[in-house]
Prior knowledge:
Blueprint: H1 2-20, E1 23-26, E2 39-41, E3 47-52, E4 58-63, E5 70-76, E6 88-91, E7 97-102, E8 113-117, E9 131-133, H2 138-144, E10 150-157, E11 163-169, E12 175-180, E13 191-192, E14 207-211, E15 217-222, E16 234-240, E17 243-245, E18 251-254, E19 266-269, E20 277-285, E21 291-300, E22 303-311, E23 316-325, E24 346-348, E25 355-362, E26 365-372, E27 381-384, E28 392-397, E29 409-420, E30 423-432
Antiparallel strand pairs: 1-30, 2-3, 3-4, 4-5, 6-7, 7-8, 8-9, 10-11, 11-12, 12-13, 14-15, 15-16, 16-17, 16-19, 17-18, 20-21, 21-22, 22-23, 24-25, 25-26, 26-27, 28-29, 29-30
Amino acid sequence: MRLSFYVFLFLCFASNVIAQTPATLTSDGAWCWFSDPRAIYTKDGHVVTGWVTKTGDIIAASLNPQSGKVEEKRLYTKLEVDDHDNPAFLELPDQRILTQYTWHGGGKNGMGVIQNTTSDKNDITTFSDSIVFKPQTAELLQKFKRETYTYANPFVLSAENNKIYSFGRWIGFKPNFITSTDNGKTWSDPKVVITSKELDINNRPYVKYFSDGKSKVHLIFTDGHPRNEPLNSVYYCYYEKDAFWRADGSKITDVDHLPFNPGDASVIYKATPETGRAWIFDIVINQKGQPVVAYTRYPTSEKHQYFYAVYDGKKWNDHHLIDSGKWFPQTPEGKEEREENYSGGLTIDPLDPSVVYFSHEINNVFEISKAETKDLGKNWKITPITRNSTLDNVRPVIPRYKKKSDTNVLLWMQNKKYVHYTDYDTGILWKVLVK
Length: 435
């Protein structure tokens, strides 16, 4: 009996150690953070995710967090070498998986939204051949001038008879959306959602999305790219019942009267020359249905600051989390950095939004840490996830649609080389987080 007890203790200890040790999901994969959800939990507790290889292949993968078993499926061969092209995933009501991705804007190799759907429940090995389509109309092209397709963000709303919404930066170089009532077989014409007051086809608002899967899609967005805008603020709105709404529930506009301007939405952060331009990283909702937001400010190009904002029903509680260092791309000697705003990145736990995982610079290496708050971000308890690394760990993500019964998994990118989004040699790691 005593021997069995000690064996039991040893197995528990060994299991804990194994659970807390990062494992390699792939040694060849990269992703951006604007084509999401790039990782989801399925109803059977598996994690489905995907990436772009250093030769430009698009890969989908399924991870069993309990056994560590990984299955892969190549969705597209040599799309292009660009981390913006990573696939985003949606579990359909019948438990098949739909994925969408794009070229980065498009060019000689192709243009449009690419889609694959599994034929069997949650079985990524049954993904269909790729279908390419272009969400456009002659009327929109005439009005908004520019045709380009980057990013895809698919969601399903059960309150709308399981209608699928997919958002991306498409016509006009602006956020668009399309809908499907037949699980993605056919799609509606696109609608442009947000635009500058005076149409500027070089201006591109950046958007992060989160859906409750029922009736709402939440959006945080900026005026444009922080590199291009004199000031870049952060805004919030949500879609529900054929309209877009501010945080306080006041209507911005009906779908039929889109687009609206950034300033028409709720302001989370108003940028100033002193506090710096901003960019966005994540949004979820808390148990009250209130938005919780993670974003970055740049008082200088080499000083990146993480902020956390919660709407409490009356106001935004917007607090500093930590200074994270500078950009993570490895700037070639003698060259200027092309992506000064590439912070290590943050992700909010969708099941417990008081928990944030973030990448920051420690001893010239980017490490992952966990931050916990009990007072809407005023104070933080920070604990390490990775330390003493020899390679940078960046762009962490907690898979979406997490359930209480799911194994708590964190995924992130690890860089053997990352010079640019078209010049990288990176992998994807994963780790079971034990409380």
